[in-house]
Design a protein that fits this description.
Order of helices and strands: EHEHEHEEEHE
Number of strands: 7
Strand content: 25-35%
Mean pLDDT: 93
Structural class: alpha+beta
């Protein structure tokens, strides 16, 4: 009998272009950051992700999506939780140069759980 790996659920609000890139990666990884995006920001609260997708991505991109994915908890411990506002506005700040390694610790697939237009 094998021990189940401990994971942490993360959410990522995203627009249609980034979602297309995730789809192209078979829902298993996040695409590399653009030069003007030095940090990858997954969030720890679904409601916060919904607010960003609905209130920011829709006006800027015409659609917004909330994705959910699991990441190996032991690996995530290297990234301190950042409070970006209220007590539920919690993010992880993953440096762009570490995103490829971060992707190797995603357990299962990235899934869309909310869509807004």
């Amino acid at each position: 009998m094998t021990e189940r790996q401990a994971t942490t659920t993360l959410w990522r609000p995203t627009g249609p272009e980034e979602l297309d890139l995730v789809r192209a990666l078979d829902w298993r990884a996040w695409p590399p950051r653009l030069p003007e995006q030095p940090i990858f920001y997954p969030v720890l609260d679904e409601e916060y992700a919904v607010r960003i997708a609905r209130d920011w991505n829709v006006p800027h991109s015409g659609a917004g999506f909330v994705t959910r994915f699991e990441v190996d908890s032991a690996f995530l411990s290297r990234y301190p939780v950042r409070q970006a506002g209220g007590r539920t506005i919690l993010e992880l700040w993953v440096p762009a140069e570490e995103l490829e390694e971060f992707n190797t610790h995603i357990v299962g697939r990235i899934e869309v759980v909310h869509a807004f237009a």
